[in-house]
């Protein structure tokens, strides 16, 4: 059985806590949706911030909403070199022991002590899809992408939930290496 999944190439972005939204944009500020993302209830916000590391800075970093319990910045390895930091490859939400950065908004700034990761490549599965294909939450998969320079990605984490829609997430470095773009298809090998 061939299992094909859509690919989403994820550029650098930030998830903010409510407390940090208040500091960066003003007390009680509500993020506004620019466009919906592949995962139900998730959106790219109109609002953007700047992030500043020891060696570099990126302006116009898109905020993804809604607000989260803890602020998290997801960047590529190339971005990390430009910023002068060395974040680990981690699953989203696992920010313990990671480096921080300065985040600058229109109304204030926050010096994060931790929260910067290179997101581990993963596939979101709705529970029904995972059950149909015999895939377990946290299972490591091999996935082939057929861009200009086809690659097989190892250690792709299966993330299974009733809240998810089928989508593979890789960062811009991975997408560029394979010559794939958002909307392309990938094949789960095992």
TrEMBL record:
Source domain of life: Bacteria
Cofactor(s) the protein needs: Zn(2+)
Family annotation (PANTHER family): PHOSPHATE PROPANOYLTRANSFERASE (PTHR39453:SF1)
Role summary: Involved in 1,2-propanediol (1,2-PD) degradation by catalyzing the conversion of propanoyl-CoA to propanoyl-phosphate.
Biological source species: Paenibacillus aestuarii
GO MF annotation terms: acyltransferase activity
Keyword Zinc carried by entry: yes
Pathway(s) this gene product operates in, as recorded in its UniProt entry: Polyol metabolism; 1,2-propanediol degradation
Enzyme class: transferase
The enzyme's E.C. designation: 2.3.1.222
NCBIfam families (UniProt xref): PRK15070.1 (NF011652)
Membership in a protein family: Belongs to the PduL family.
Protein name per UniProt: Phosphate propanoyltransferase
Alphabetized InterPro entries for the sequence: PTAC
Keyword annotations of the record: Acyltransferase, Metal-binding, Transferase, Zinc
Pfam families: PTAC
Lineage, uppermost ranks: Bacteria, Bacillati, Bacillota, Bacilli, Bacillales
